Amino acid sequence: MRISVVVPALNDSPMLAQCLAALALQTRPADEIVVVDNGSTDDTAAVAVAGGARVVAEPLRGIFPATAAGFDAAEGDILARLDADSIPPADWLARIESAFAADDALDFLSGPGDFYGSTRLVHWLAETLYIGGYVWFVGMLLGHAPLFGSNLAMRADAWRSVRGTVHRGLREIHDDLDLAIHVEPHQGVRFDKTLRVGVSARPFASFAGFRRRIDWAFGTLGLNWRERSLLDRRRERVRLR
Q: So what's the pLDDT on residue 172?
């Protein structure tokens, strides 16, 4: 089982160096690391190469265009995904490998983040209300566990089955939420609350940044609901189950 780690990055060289250093300490090393340079003007690409990654360029700005380009370019059987500011613990890839090896029906695996870089109150609010609320709401709405893009893994075959239906070319949507919505009814999804990674609290540094994330969430839901009722998707999954 080969594991590829995909990291989209835009002018994130200091945090990317930290992420790659954590990946270098994995007890189960990645078979490849793909850093997607999303049009950086700093030394992101050079930092990626120095950290042992293969660099893929994606000129179309946006998390989803960059992430999708990385998934397409990756050669592994399992596609793991981190943000440039994610800091995975040393056993992160080993646990991902064990989860997929033990369950042939598992297609998508995700877990929460432990926020760093702000106050304890901000960290608690982000972990408890933002991530906790997201996990509860998406699980209720879709009838399966959510996906969190800063801490995500999937089978390559699962990505290939949905990459033509997700909104991979759009910028102002949440790629993980959109991907979760397009999980096929027969595909297995698990959210493991013990599979944790460090995640920067910088999106919550200002009200404007937090508001933007909320706007993107409602935009992602609205876009998909206009195409097909999310309740219909949920009913189809429940019927199959």
A: 87
